[in-house]
Amino acid sequence: MLAGKRVLLIIAGGIAAYKTLELIRLLKGQGAAVTPVMTKAASEFVTPLSVSALAGEKVYTDLFDLTEEAEMGHIQLSRSADLVVVAPATANIMAKMVGGQADDMATTLLMATDTPVMIAPAMNVRMWDHPATQRNVETLLEDRIRIVGPNVGDMACGEHGPGRMAEPAEILNAVRNALTSGPLTGKHILVTSGPTHEPIDPVRYIANRSSGAQGAALAKALMDLGADVTFVTGPASVAPPVGARIVPVETAAQMLVAVEEHLPADAAIFAAAVADWRVASASGKKIKKQDGALPTLEFAENPDILARVSQMAAGRPPLVVGFAAETHDVIENATAKRLRKRCDWIVANDVRPETGIMGGTENKVTLVTDAGSQDWPRMSKTEVSMKLASEIAKALG
Ligand code: C5P
């Protein structure tokens, strides 16, 4: 699958470096060549000998090794690969990338490279959650660095939460998506997914039953065809697609900001179940029970993200696709919605509870375009996604 491809693999100094040995094995198993680079700290966790033995290549470690410079200068080395992967990417190396520092071999290569870069962050949960790291993640996404993971789970330090490096198989999958070409290679597609949570007070919120399954499956299908996907997701119960640029949000207002920040795109697919209303003035404090008196919630309308993007005066994505969850008159409502919002396509589905579609694994879709409507048979959300992704590829082709 990856024959003829070369990955420049930068191993930074984290305990997850031991998992990178397995990643090297998987990459080699797919036919990729791996040029390993280790930071000084990385060699405290795994030995250069193990890395080099598995990669079957020399390990680069020191910027100032004159023999190495003579054999292959660091600029040339940085551009010798199809993809640069940093795994594990520590908080430190991420901060250096953001700051443009180049004080060792690994960071110099990252500054000098003109090939796409993917990082697999791995760190303690508090370090991941730290505002500095979160700021850095945002900047790296803006710099179009691909981020895989981190996952939520138990950590070597005994804590639990986000910060665990993505599993080697997940990183391999993301590498494969980045390196193999398909009809959507070079296309940036933005997908919104999941429900939104609209706060009532700090502990309560209004939500809906969307699992995020359709959006995640669609993002994966688009990536399988080579697309570079930005996935703006509300708090979904289904895991976000590995290999996409994940932008987590909670509310509709945050989703709008995230969408605007991540345009331009060749296509924008709005699969999120965005709350139509939010509580007009969410309380900053938990609303207390008062004897006999019931709280009254006032609502305000949320921005319609799909309509806004469809009606952008400048920079509108060439293809804008909305979803319509309907319980009756599916085609009539979807057709009217397409015209009202001014999107190009509407993917309509029947979400009457007896269909089991909302939160389920199957979907029954009607695609409404300016050419009319197409009824698709009931199939899995994965199959719907593959069919839709190939229609999108045709439209953008
Ligand atoms: O109007 P309705 O909510 O049925 O429209 C559904 C479509 O509009 C979906 O594609 C959904 O993602 C999008 N939408 C949106 N912002 C909203 C409400 C819906 O982007 N506030």
Could you describe the 3D structure shown?
The protein is an alpha/beta fold. The chain folds into 2 domains: 6-178, 3-Layer(aba) Sandwich (Rossmann fold), CATH 3.40.50.1950; 182-396, Rossmann fold (3-Layer(aba) Sandwich), CATH 3.40.50. The protein has helices at residues 17-29, 42-45, 48-55, 66-71, 74-78, 91-99, 105-112, 125-129, 131-142, 168-179, 213-224, 252-261, 305-310, 330-341, 381-396; strands at 6-11, 33-38, 83-89, 117-121, 146-147, 151-154, 160-164, 188-193, 198-199, 205-206, 228-233, 245-248, 267-270, 277-279, 299-301, 319-326, 345-350, 362-363, 365-369, 372-375, 379-380. A hairpin with a 5-residue loop joins strand 9 (198-199) and strand 10. Helix 11 (213-224) crosses helix 15. The two termini are 24 Å apart. The structure holds cytidine-5'-monophosphate. Cytidine-5'-monophosphate binds at residues 192, 252, 270, 272, 274, 276, 302-306, 322-324.
